[in-house]
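Below is how a single chain appears once it has passed through the pipeline. First comes the sequence as given, then the structure the pipeline wrote out for it. We keep one example in the README because the format questions we get most often are answered faster by looking than by reading.
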Amino acid sequence: MYSGGANLPPVTETILDIQGLSKTYKNGLKALDGVDLTIRKGEIFALLGPNGAGKTTLIGSVCGLVRPTGGTITAFGTDLLRNWRSARARIGLVPQELATDMFEKVSRSVAFSRGLFGLAPNPERIEEVLRSLSLWDKRDEQIRALSGGMKRRVLIAKALAHDPDLLFLDEPTAGVDVELRRDMWKQIGALRERGTTIILTTHYIEEAEEMADRVGVIDKGRILLVDDKAALMARMGRTEAVISLAEPLAEIPSALSAFPLHLSDDRRALIYRGGDGMGQGKRDVADLTRALVAQGIVYTALDIHESSLEDIFVDLVDHRPEGTAE
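Resulting structure:
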């Protein structure tokens, strides 16, 4: 799998700037509640959130599918809400739903998407896109005859047909088997290498952890955090180790007071919680086991777990105070 940001210079130019974006539907549902978000040129940005958090509404607002209630969206230096048509030609969208003309042939459908943005026909580019997504052999088949995974590849091909500078992927691997998912991420990695800025939502948080340069968490229409992935893991990641003891301890020896330890309720296990999500915890646990041996404390098992991005995400969402947005 492609590793986001590997061996690439940092880029700080802003390609998308969202300020105070809100959306309240006629039924009173507040889908977005003052969202501020800045996207850097050339990055892969993962937007994570539970169902109903506002991810798709946010994407729809940028792509012209949803009319915001308030706020501003600036893309490529242009006010997107006032000059939508010119900027939209530089934006691609792979929607969550498989909405396409099922009776159209693959190649014609992808070529038509290119024409929608006023670009001249380019059979060579269409062939390149189809080949990159393993669709060339399916080019003359009707979309309805394809598997679910191949239909999703067609959506990606349609989004790439006009060579967008900014690409939105809304749950691009939903319903796709492992092999097709892996091929899709290779293609996304290749796009990143070519300089395409990618914003994705995904339920497969391990993919975001592997791919993204930065991560944002949205819940109830509000952005809870935005941070570089490495910085987020270092700041909020933790290591937990459970050390099973051969004999129960009455208390933790003073020689171990430097470690963030507590005894289990039955006093038959030492529990370590600490570290920084970047390896310090494992080093601490190694030092701790050596200290136990030096103290003559015998342990029978060691179970160690380091926080994943999913752990951090679940903790953020579970501990968020109730708000008004959905």
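The radius of gyration is 24 Å.

See the next section for the split statistics.
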